[in-house]
Amino acid sequence: MLVDGKQYRTIWPNKALSEVTIIDQTYLPFEFKLRPLRSLNEVVEAIKKMRVRGAPLIGVAAAYGMAIALMKNSTDKYLIEAKKLLIQSRPTAVNLAWAVNFVFDKLKKEPIDTRISLAWRLANELADQDVRNNLRIGELGLKLIQKVNKPQINILTHCNAGWLATIDYGTALSPIYKAFREGLNIHVWVDETRPRNQGTSLTAWELNQENIPHTIITDSAGGLLMQRGDVDLVLVGADRISIDGNVCNKIGTYLKALAAKQSKIPFYVAAPTSTIDPNYMGQNNTFDIECRDEDEVLKVKGLDAKNNITEVKIGYSSAYNPAFDITPSNFVGKIICEKGIYNPRDIKKVLK
Q1: Are 186 and 207 in contact (CB under 8 A)?
Q2: Catalytic residues
């Protein structure tokens, strides 16, 4: 995608295949800053601190982390340690563990002296596959957007499921980019998405780069807009999907689904098949809902009078900060993945 007219991915390796560069998302929207990652610990830190974030992106970042780790030590023991550290860096998005396990299973069968080159090749292949998946999601999601027969199509999205959450194009934003480039009159309602404000800081920033009309709203405004008929469809991403169609995504997604159901507004989820967890069904949650530091709730980041990035404390009480919630399948209209558009309870067919 474009940043000031220049093409970027969110993560890419150097020519020597010894390190990767990321867009450090903790500085957006105020600064566009690139950051090299040269060690396993730096990759783990980048995932934990959300310098890279979004389920597909942290999966690929972790795959690159495996390759970088092997630059130091290619033994079985270190391979197992690297796998453990990366999977533990963030527990909820299944793509991370899926990517690490995929790379690990290939590497453990490989002779030690050729593991490094294979690791880099596998990570690059996962990155390229993510781009292809997201392009396909965009093409399929466009068909759902085209069903709205209005002069202007108003789409509400939550958090950031754009290209910053993937390698390129995004999941939930990919159909929006495709629709806009096809000439549809698109307007996006962007949830601010507290407490980290990924809608305000990331989604709005992306849409600005592409000149797509949008408006930032408070997280609690979506219901009112739906009641008024000002939302034509809701389009969100996912961090984990059960085989019977329950969707784990950024905290606040469930409330949007409830409001959409009440207002009879289509609620769509866009995610690659790597987001489907074959071990997750119904209430059988085989994963932890990540609970992050209370400072994310009690502090707000912005610019001071001298345009320096700063944090301001806004409260002194204790705070509870779960990062994700779960939307039951009966509140989900369709799930869009690279293999097709599915009713949520039929999503398990993808794995066959």
Answers
A1: no
A2: 239
Question: Which letter does DSSP use for residue 173 in this model?
Answer: S
Encoded tokens for 114: 């050729």
The amino acid at 174: S
- As a whole number of Å, the CA-based R_g of the chain is 20
Which tokens in the block code for residue 302? 């912005």
Q: Measured between alpha carbons, how far is 46 from 199 in angstroms, rounded to an integer?
A: 20
What CA–CA distance (Å, rounded) separates 174 from 181? 11
**β partners of residue 215:** 189
Q: Angle CA(162)–CA(168)–CA(169) in degrees, nearest 5? A: 50
Q: Can you say whether the dihedral through the CA atoms of 87, 89, 90, 96 is positive or negative?
A: negative
* pLDDT tens digits, 38-83: 999 999 999 999 999 999 999 999 999 999 999 999 999 999 999 9
Distances (CA, A) of 13 to 65, 112, 136: 11, 21, 24
Which of 91, 68, 134 shows the shortest CA–CA distance to 274?
A: 134
Domains of the chain and any CATH numbers? 2-131 (1.20.120.420), 142-351 (3.40.50.10470)
Other Cβ atoms less than 10 A from the Cβ of 158: the count is 28
Sign, CA torsion 291/292/293/294: negative
pLDDT tens profile 123-168: 999 999 999 999 999 999 999 999 999 999 999 999 999 999 999 9
Q: Quick one: which H or E segment has residue 315?
A: none
Paired sense of beta strands 247-250 and 240-241, if any: antiparallel
pTM of the model: 0.94
Q: How far apart are CA 314 and CA 168, in angstroms?
A: 35
Torsional class of 252: left (φ above 0), alpha (ψ -120 to 50), beta (otherwise): left
DSSP β-bridge partners for residue 312: 300
Q: Which segments of 19-107 does DSSP mark as H helices, in order?
A: 40-48, 55-72, 76-89, 94-107
DSSP string, 101-157: HHHHHHHTTS-GGGHHHHHHHHHHHHHHHHHHHHHHHHHHHHHHHTT--SSSEEEEE
What separation in angstroms does the CA of 6 have from each of 1, 26, 36, 202, 228? 8, 20, 19, 17, 39
**What 8-state DSSP symbol labels residue 299?**
E
